[in-house]
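Table 4 source record.
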Amino acid sequence: MFTGLIQALGTMEPLGGDSWQITCVSHSCEVIMQDLAYGDSVAVDGVCLTVEKVLKDGFIATASPETLGRTTLGGEQMQQRYVNLEASLRVGSKVGGHFVMGHVDGIGRLLVAEQTASSWEMTFIASKAIARYIVPKGSIAVNGISLTIAAYEPELSQFKVAVIPLTYADTNLRYLVSGSLVNLEGDILGKYVEKFLSPGNPHITTDETSMDGITPAFLAEHGYL
């Protein structure tokens, strides 16, 4: 599990087969490397990979064909750009972003990035399979970065995020151009809610999935409003 707060930048190089060498290249590499060990998990552009060998300034990991097909890691552009790195969350650590699983739901695309007086506003388009987890003011992971959705256009499956200068400078968002592909992971909380309320869930009864009793008065009584 991760938090979506990027700790360093790195590069990826194929070693043949499903093996990849991830090399940490930013000034904050010690955060990733200080106690990295065999079997640890590291999010690489939001994709959870397992460390198989620790190197002086990086590690070797395997990315399965399914992972390569579902994410941007299998694209030719990976050898020409930086990837975001985050070590897995440790017990007792601060959760500054949101719970990111490292299980990418699919690929999105940057439409436009505009600089404002206080931030960068970036608009992405997502597939409908991912868009159903997008909630205004909710969380989404873009290349492993925990971001808050500022605006959402469900008809177009487009969403906008406001990126503060620190995040923009310390992640690979600053290297994206219009048309760049990104890994997207919806908030895990939304996925659980979807499952629990699904009429096809075999673990709950029809009565339990009924929404008839969910009224503003009910929500206020139970502290939701």
